[in-house]
Specification:
The strands form 4 sheets. A 6-stranded parallel β-sheet has the order 3-2-5-6-7-8, with helices on both faces. It is α/β, with parallel strands linked by helices and 346 residues long. The protein has helices spanning 22-27, 44-54, 59-71, 89-92, 108-117, 132-138, 179-199, 246-253, 299-311, 314-328, 336-345, and strands at residues 2-4, 13-16, 32-35, 41-43, 75-78, 97-101, 122-129, 142-148, 166-172, 203-206, 221-222, 237-242, 257-261, 266-268, 274-276, 293-294. The protein contains 11 helices and 16 strands. The protein has 2 domains: 2-150 and 333-345, Rossmann fold; 166-324, Glycogen Phosphorylase B (Rossmann fold, 3-Layer(aba) Sandwich), CATH 3.40.50.2000.
Amino acid sequence: MKIIFSRPPRKKILIFDRNFPYLFIKTLKNKCEIMDVRKESINLFVLFYTLINNGLKNIKKNYIISYIKLVNPKIVLTFIDNNFFFYEIKKFYSKPKYISIQNGFRNHIFYKILKKKSLKNLIVDYCFVFGEINKRILSKFIIGKIIVFGNLKNNFIFKKKKNKYSKDIVFISQTTNSRDFFSREKIILKYLKEFCEKEDIKFKVYLADNNLENRYKNYEIIKKSNNDLPKKELENYNLFICCDSTLGYEMLSIKKKVVFLNLKKNIKLSNGKIVKGLPFGYPKKIKKDGFFWVNTNKKKLIFKTLKKVLMINKKKWNKIIRPYSKEFMVFNYNNIKLKKIIKKFL
């Protein structure tokens, strides 16, 4: 843990939690201060200020509120939309505008906690979400203006007028290092190998985590570049396969061909816990299998779906995915909606 002795500088924007895309912070130039909330660092000036004014009671909560008061920002931003405490801060200190930005799809546990926490009045000024389904659900539990704008990182991907697409298929790996999740991927990789040999095409594995390279040593891989940069290494591919990856929905939002294969609904982790694999479209309830998604282990159906998506022309594909993109992940070029809100209050 890093120890900081100086008073935090006054800034117009305070980033709540260091886990925030650097690329976006860079566009804000020197207007930001970052507040660590996971013990990466502790500011002794803020700590003593908190103890003098509030004592030891609720020290963590009061430390965060003291930090915000000392920075005196116009806006407090977070990319960690599943930190429920963020939605309670406005009750204790309402001066800044509070903005949360969705950074991943959530499972049933998140929505269960959200429903319970909502009884404490979760409040935010603006909540930016992936798609319409997120807006409808969160509107029931969070007080504030909820705006559909897609994924902040993905919105930095620049549109190109002309692309020469590779015929190779790209499988998007999971970020987790759990062997239990990899057991699901092994089935898909086996099917992909057989399908590609049959169709005389190649497939590659995109590493969502480069530390897991050894796991895919038997396959041709595409390494992940800087986490905050547009995914240039993927822009020349047009067909992606994934389980329930957020990146899969991102590719769908920019009109890439994507097939979602959720072959196991329940996954047993090494610690004994059961995790539900997210079927395509969760938390919205849609039919089990569709034009570009499959929720069974049936090889025949998987091959049929892969072939169908592979052969469809771009115009027809765009028409099919339009309602799904709006529902689950839109594309807001260069984060225009968010930038307008920030500019408004600065």
